[in-house]
Design a protein that fits this description.
The chain has 203 residues and is α/β, with parallel strands linked by helices. The protein has a single domain, classed as Ribonuclease Z/Hydroxyacylglutathione hydrolase-like (Metallo-beta-lactamase, Chain A). 22% of the residues lie in helices and 31% in strands. The strands form three sheets. Strands 1-2-3-4-5-6 form a six-stranded mixed sheet, covered by helices on one side. A six-stranded mixed sheet has the order 7-8-9-10-13-14. It starts with a strand and ends with a helix.
Length: 203
């Protein structure tokens, strides 16, 4: 499985992603936004890419601003949480799995930054796309109690080997192993809500 991280600019150092299964040529696009020319150039380098999905992590405009333009050359359904305000074709519930190559993409409901925020986990446990919920060394702003539950109950139990791919380039690295974030990211490592809420004042 090939994960291509694209620094597309956008509102604030946004990332878009291409997922490409070399055997089946299944291809998915996560949060198309910013400079879509960079996405199109990356797509052109993938041999016989077969569009499968456009996946939205949440409905804030800076994460889906490129959907309309990309669909012209990437004919795939747009998938998102049912509460996502952006127009989409597929409603994804918590735990729903989309076939992708020899594995799947799993949607994990992760409210807090927004009511429709989701994560996408590759079934081979190589990648976790976190949108604005979890950044490298940081977390997204939002409703503290919901975000804390998401950190402790949704993200922390996931395997350490997952690579965290965030929605913005805010940390010391563009992506990071989840195990490293569990140990070093104060928003993920703390098990005490009071400390989490205090740390959120720095966002």
């Amino acid at each position: 499985m090939n994960v291509i991280q694209l620094a597309v600019g956008g509102l604030d150092a946004n990332f878009s992603y291409l997922l490409h299964d070399r055997r089946s040529r299944d291809t998915a696009l996560v949060d198309p936004c910013g400079d879509t020319r960079l996405i199109k150039t990356a797509l052109a380098r993938l041999p016989e890419a077969q569009p499968r999905y456009i996946l939205l992590t949440h409905g804030h405009h800076d994460h889906w601003s490129g959907v309309r333009e990309m669909r012209g050359g990437f004919a795939a359904p747009v998938a998102a949480h049912p509460r996502c305000p952006a127009r989409h074709d597929l409603d994804l519930s918590d735990g729903e799995r989309l076939p992708f190559g020899d594995t799947f993409v799993e949607c994990l409901y992760a409210p807090g930054h927004s009511p429709d925020s989701v994560l996408y986990r590759l079934g081979d446990d190589t990648a976790l796309f976190t949108g604005d919920t979890l950044f490298v060394d940081w977390c997204g702003y939002g409703e503290p109690e919901a975000l804390f539950r998401t950190m402790r109950e949704v993200i922390f139990p996931l395997p350490d080997r997952l690579e965290v791919y965030p929605g913005h380039d805010y940390g010391r690295a563009p992506h990071s192993p989840l195990g490293t974030q569990k140990a070093e990211n104060p928003y993920l490592s703390t098990a005490e809500f009071a400390r989490f809420r205090e740390a959120m004042k720095e966002l």
